[in-house]
Write a sequence for this structure.
């Protein structure tokens, strides 16, 4: 599966079987007594880029972490490309194979080199021969512009480089959908742009993306829709221009007035 | 120029650095032997006191030890007369001829003399296995692992206990002794305790209540009982309840006891390592689609075991020394053979016991210090791997 070196695309996203990439229906979740997600309904079409924002503790991360079952939900349904996410381990594996995720703190494996980090899942989950997996890994490392770091350990890289490795690692599984959980929040200001650029390139290639972020510039540039959450609910969702120009809900107005200068 | 360039930043509102300041070597008192002494031996009054105390201690102990083991030692002779000051009329140190004469007994115990080559072959095979496995640049270490964990135990078992069908005369384990027993007990304990400990540690952290409860009960029960009790139960009590023909060999019972005991301790050591792994590592592994077994084997355990190497080796060293307790059930390990030999009337002198114990001390020191050094080297190597 060596992708064409000369094509400008970051990747060819895995093809979805259905029109709807992710569908959340009446999603509810509690941490003990605390109702973190309340009646969430969200439908993400294939190729759509959704930016999710909102104050901390509003349930944004929890919501996208439910999609690949890093969190369990207690009510409602989650459909990922037609597969319902339940306690069934087979379904969970199936979903995780098709959904890539990038974390705030990178979560790279510190005992493996950058190349090994990327090749690990293709080898063990996709059962790809080691050599082929390493070619795939190197391909994506080139795409995120750090092939020269392939044999270093994550601890030797800067935050921005680590996050790009994390993106490459997720892409090596050739996912249909990518989840980003505050990918630039833990980065030094100087490193944010290189990560955002990588994500923009990914968006241009037609990847279905759900991005939790406070980078409003990125949202304006890339998002098809912006979803604003507060207290575990979706308060407002709209196309970026409308969202920024005419926020409807009071909470949205307050939030925007606080983060936009 | 009256002001240093740095002062300009204060003196004037606008400041632009024109040239990069070149790095300079550190001041002389920070480097070299003087710097090392300053930093390590005499940095604070407390450190100075400690340094003086340690120097005094060494000055007191080392000459005594050297005098006894080397200068005043007796190097040749055929019986106790060589080591008696009433006969020799001089200061007598270690009685080495006693050690030379009893050395085969210290190494093989009562293993039949014509069959002792089998023990030598076992030592050699074990040495090859240890080097193959521990020397990181050795070729085909995967084969080394198979050799060490599968081939070696089977072949050693056949070799040491004998198999009439291939012409190896059976040797009852009551005849085994000395270094042979110490090494067998220690290696069985070391080889079995780590995998068992890992399984118990994972069990204790399992989400399944039955698995978790069983692991906790096992670990807490075994840790709550002294090793001597475990050995005593295995060696003395078990035969009272089980008909003799079904009761396993005495040495085997002790080996099982030690392996179980060590694995409970190892489980807690490994658990500490598992707890040091951040949640993000689990999530990162799950998010790329790895299952529980793959995640544990490829991501979690390598990191958990690495951070616990010092504790694992610590447990191993403790285990190695604890093997001397098998004497309680009448198994003749190295220390026990020395105990027996030192009361031999042929060598009855005031220095015989001390000499014998010195041999034991040197033996245990070499092995334990070797383990400790290897662990240090491993840590240093892994730290170089660029982990944060």
């Amino acid at each position: 599966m060596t992708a064409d070196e000369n094509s400008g695309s970051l990747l060819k996203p895995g093809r979805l079987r259905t029109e709807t990439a992710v569908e959340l229906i009446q999603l509810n979740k509690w941490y003990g007594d605390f109702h973190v997600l309340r009646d969430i309904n969200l439908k993400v079409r294939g190729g759509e880029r959704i930016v999710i924002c909102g104050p901390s503790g509003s349930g944004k991360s929890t919501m996208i972490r439910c999609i690949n079952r890093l969190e369990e939900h207690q009510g409602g349904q989650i459909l990922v490309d037609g597969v319902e996410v339940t306690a069934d381990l087979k379904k969970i594996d199936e979903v995780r194979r098709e959904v890539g995720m990038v974390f705030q703190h990178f979560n790279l494996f510190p005992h493996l080199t950058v190349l090994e980090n990327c090749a690990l899942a293709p080898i063990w989950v996709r059962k790809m021969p080691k050599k082929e997996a390493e070619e795939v890994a190197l391909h994506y490392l080139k795409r995120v512009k750090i092939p020269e770091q392939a044999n270093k350990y994550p601890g030797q890289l800067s935050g921005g480089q680590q996050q790009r490795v994390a993106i490459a690692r997720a892409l090596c599984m050739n996912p249909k959908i990518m989840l980003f959980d505050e990918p630039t929040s833990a980065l030094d200001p100087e490193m944010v742009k290189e990560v955002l650029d990588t994500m923009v390139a990914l968006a241009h290639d037609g990847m279905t993306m759900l991005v939790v972020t406070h980078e409003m510039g990125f949202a304006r540039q890339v998002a098809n829709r912006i979803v604003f959450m507060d207290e575990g609910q979706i308060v407002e969702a709209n196309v970026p221009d409308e969202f920024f120009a005419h926020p409807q809900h009071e909470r949205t107005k307050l939030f925007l007035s606080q983060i936009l200068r | 120029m009256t002001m240093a360039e740095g002062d300009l930043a204060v003196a004037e509102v606008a400041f632009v650095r024109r040239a990069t300041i070149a790095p300079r070597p550190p001041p002389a008192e920070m480097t070299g032997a003087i710097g090392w002494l300053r930093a390590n031996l005499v940095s604070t009054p407390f450190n100075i006191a400690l340094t003086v105390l340690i120097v005094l201690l060494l000055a007191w102990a080392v000459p005594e030890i050297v005098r006894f083991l080397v200068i005043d030692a007796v190097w040749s002779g055929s019986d106790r007369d060589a080591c008696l000051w009433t006969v020799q009329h001089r200061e007598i140190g270690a009685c080495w001829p006693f050690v030379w004469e009893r050395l085969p007994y210290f190494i093989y115990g009562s293993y039949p003399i014509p069959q002792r080559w089998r023990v030598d072959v076992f030592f050699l095979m074990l040495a090859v296995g240890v080097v193959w496995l521990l020397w990181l640049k050795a070729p085909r270490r995967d084969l080394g692992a198979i050799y060490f964990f599968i081939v070696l135990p089977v072949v050693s078992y056949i070799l040491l206990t004998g198999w009439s069908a291939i012409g190896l005369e059976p040797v009852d384990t009551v005849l085994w002794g000395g270094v042979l027993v110490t090494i067998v007990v220690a290696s069985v304990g070391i080889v079995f305790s780590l995998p068992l400990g890992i399984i118990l540690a994972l069990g204790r952290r399992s989400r399944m209540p039955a698995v978790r409860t069983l692991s906790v009960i096992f670990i807490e029960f075994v840790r709550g009982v002294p090793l001597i009790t475990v050995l005593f139960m295995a060696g003395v009590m078990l035969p009272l309840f089980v008909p003799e023909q079904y009761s396993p060999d005495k040495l085997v019972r002790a080996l099982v006891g030690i392996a179980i005991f060590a694995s409970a301790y190892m489980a807690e050591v490994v658990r500490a390592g598992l707890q040091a792994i951040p949640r993000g590592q689990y999530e990162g592994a799950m998010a790329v689609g790895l299952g529980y077994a793959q995640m544990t084997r490829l991501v979690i355990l390598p990191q958990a075991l690495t951070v616990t190497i010092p504790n694992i080796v610590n447990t191993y060293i403790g285990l190695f020394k604890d093997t001397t307790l098998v004497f309680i059930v009448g198994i003749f390990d190295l220390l026990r053979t020395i105990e027996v030999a030192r009361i031999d009337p042929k060598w009855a002198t005031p220095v015989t016991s001390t000499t014998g114990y010195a041999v034991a001390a040197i033996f245990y020191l070499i092995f334990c210090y070797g383990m400790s050094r290897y662990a240090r080297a491993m840590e240093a190597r892994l730290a170089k791997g660029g982990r944060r």
